[in-house]
Each structure stands twice: as structure tokens, then as C-alpha cells.
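> forwarded from #structure-qc
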């Protein structure tokens, strides 16, 4: 017998309107949905979301917002298929608007804290060690030579894992300025943009990066 990573369709509805279907492990569907809406800038604040209801019998998640999604047609009319595994999609002018994001210019990260984080990620018990076929992302704090993992989420696509952490950050009231974001796989433009939107100044991977990611 061998362990096999699960993969389930999860169709997102916002105010009874279908947005898209995500393929996911399904470990954190609420956080994934909230983080997706956050990173796509379809919802500006957590307070704009009234309810998130997951129904695995129909493989769907229904989101109810307070005032509806502004300019939804305009935002979803322009789609960019990204190089993220599973071919992610970003809506609207997200690629162009990254120039408006400002991170803390005085943020620093010690080599010791970086190596400590990488070692803790390596030792972290994961689905990947049991079954493979998944990507993992970690949110960590750091101070001087110390680094602590706050969240570690795995999914069949890295963009899902990033979005789930973004959703949890909103729900937990976590800011990104003093955090490190770790991800498996390469650093594409989509990964860099999402980390920047979360206000995280440090994005770490053992793999390489693309020209647009740079």
C-alpha cells in the first residue's frame, strides 16, 4: 500500500455567481477561498466577507459579501494564464499594478535565521514525504538568529498553498512586514506578486527564479 495525495474540485461562488473551480487537497478550503479573493483583489477587506460555506457534497464553496464585488465583469474579463503549476489564472491588471506595491525598505534577514528556517522546513512532517505530488508553503517569523514557522500548508498547486496562507493571515490578523515566506518550486512572477501583496519582504525557495519573477 502507498499513500496518494488527494485532489478535489472546489467551485467558488460569490454572491451566487460562479467565479472558477480550484483543484485542491481540500485541507483548508475556507482559508484558500478567502486568500484567493484577497490575492486576486476581488475583495479588499476581510470585513467585506459575510460568510463562507463549504459543501463537499457538491464540491463547492459559497461566499456571501456585504456589498457585492465591485467591477467584477471588468476584472474577470481580462485573464492571464500564469506559469504556476496547474496553470493559475490572475484577473485584471494585477501584473501591471505590482509597481504600486511598497515593502519595508529597511527589512533585514540574517543568514543564521534563513538557515534555521530552511532546516525547520526540511524537518517538518509533510504530506510530500508520505505521498509526494504536492507543493508546500510556510509563513515564518524571524528575529536575529531565530526563525519560527507559524503556518505550513500543502496543496496540489503552489498558488493554492499561497492563497490559503493569505487567507489565514487575514483571519488571524497577521501582518507581513516581519515575516518570511517559503515555497517549494521556482519563483515565478505570480509567486512574487502574491508575496508582495501580502506585505512580506522575504520570499525564499530552494529552486530557481524566472526572469519576470526577478
Amino acid at each position: 500500500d502507498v499513500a496518494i495525495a488527494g485532489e478535489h474540485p472546489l467551485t467558488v461562488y460569490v454572491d451566487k455567481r460562479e467565479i472558477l473551480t480550484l483543484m485542491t487537497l481540500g485541507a483548508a478550503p475556507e482559508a484558500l477561498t478567502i486568500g484567493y479573493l484577497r490575492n486576486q483583489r476581488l475583495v479588499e477587506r476581510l470585513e467585506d466577507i459575510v460568510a463562507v460555506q463549504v459543501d463537499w457534497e457538491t464540491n463547492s464553496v459559497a461566499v456571501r459579501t456585504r456589498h457585492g464585488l465591485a467591477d467584477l465583469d471588468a476584472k474577470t474579463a481580462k485573464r492571464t494564464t500564469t506559469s504556476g503549476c496547474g496553470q493559475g489564472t490572475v484577473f485584471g491588471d494585477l501584473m501591471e499594478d505590482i509597481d504600486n506595491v511598497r515593502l519595508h525598505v529597511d527589512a533585514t534577514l540574517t543568514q543564521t535565521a534563513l538557515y534555521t528556517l530552511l532546516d525547520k522546513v526540511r524537518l517538518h512532517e509533510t504530506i510530500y514525504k508520505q505521498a509526494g505530488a504536492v507543493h508546500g508553503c510556510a509563513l515564518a517569523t524571524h528575529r536575529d538568529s531565530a526563525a519560527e514557522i507559524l503556518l505550513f500548508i500543502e496543496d496540489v498547486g503552489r498558488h493554492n498553498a499561497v492563497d490559503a496562507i493569505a487567507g489565514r493571515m487575514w483571519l488571524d490578523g497577521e501582518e507581513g512586514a516581519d515575516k518570511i515566506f517559503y515555497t517549494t518550486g521556482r519563483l515565478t512572477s505570480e509567486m512574487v506578486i502574491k508575496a508582495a501583496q501580502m506585505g512580506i519582504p522575504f520570499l525564499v525557495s530552494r529552486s530557481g527564479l524566472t526572469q519576470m519573477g526577478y
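QC bot note: The longest strand covers residues 146-155. The mean pLDDT is 87.
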